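Escalated from tier 1: iron/sulfur cluster holo job.
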Amino acid sequence: MAKLTMREATKLKNTRHVLGISGGKDSAALAIYIRDTYPEIHEKIEYFFTDTGAELEEVYDFLDKLEAYLGKKIERLTQERGFEHFLTMHNDYLPSPRQRWCTLMMKIKPFEAFVKDDPVVTYVGIRADENREGYVSQKPTIQAVFPFIEDGLVRDDIFQMLEDTVGIPDYYEWRSRSGCYFCFFQRQDEWLGLKRRHPELFEKAVKIEKESGQGYTWVQDRTLEQVIERAEEREKEDKVKCLKNKQASVRWQDKIRYDEDDDDPEDQACVICSL
Ligand code: SF4
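Tier 2 regenerated the structure:
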């Protein structure tokens, strides 16, 4: 995928400009940044959100807020067939970091169907302080622009921009990234967060795991029940440590601002899901 500068992108004729909103902080901040800094590009951009059908309701609330701020529609790319259909197609093997068919089927293919073979410039929210590539399309018709890298914006700028406009998505209080409720990139404490905040979704994830092929689990070598058990134990230990250290209570918005777990370089290819 060819890379362009903002200046080069602005000059292109007969080209679509698209920006995929994942529900995460960086793509939302990028849309806000473009609206406020490059109004001529904002005019042309088609904002879109690829709905896997397994999103958290907090994501939809956040999209509504963002849409209101942008003053433009965020196109929702919905799919006729959901995760269960693709799971059957993959012989009931759960997706995993190594077999990430979910991203291909539920994110990349709908995106490619949306842009068709049109000449397209896609705006990507990778920041200047990150070292990851993001989703690289093989389509020769797609070119990419990285405005945050070009303009030197870093993590703190992104949080500030969100705090000053639409706020940080609520799910960041218990989860470090957007994406499907059952995403296997979740940490143990995030699974626990899912169980507490969305018990029905957690139960659905347990059911899918139990019915999956050859005893596959969402988390390597551990069932979700075991994951929760471990997470609860760790939570107790952390509380004791916290009491011992008499840590002052910190706003969750500030805590996550300096917790860079969502920048895990291991899940580079998931950038399309959670950036
Ligand atoms: S969010 Fe996670 S589970 Fe959903 S498509 Fe992306 S990698 Fe797969």
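The pocket of iron/sulfur cluster is lined by residues 52, 95, 100, 102-103, 106-107, 179-180, 183, 185, 270, 273 (CB under 6 Å).
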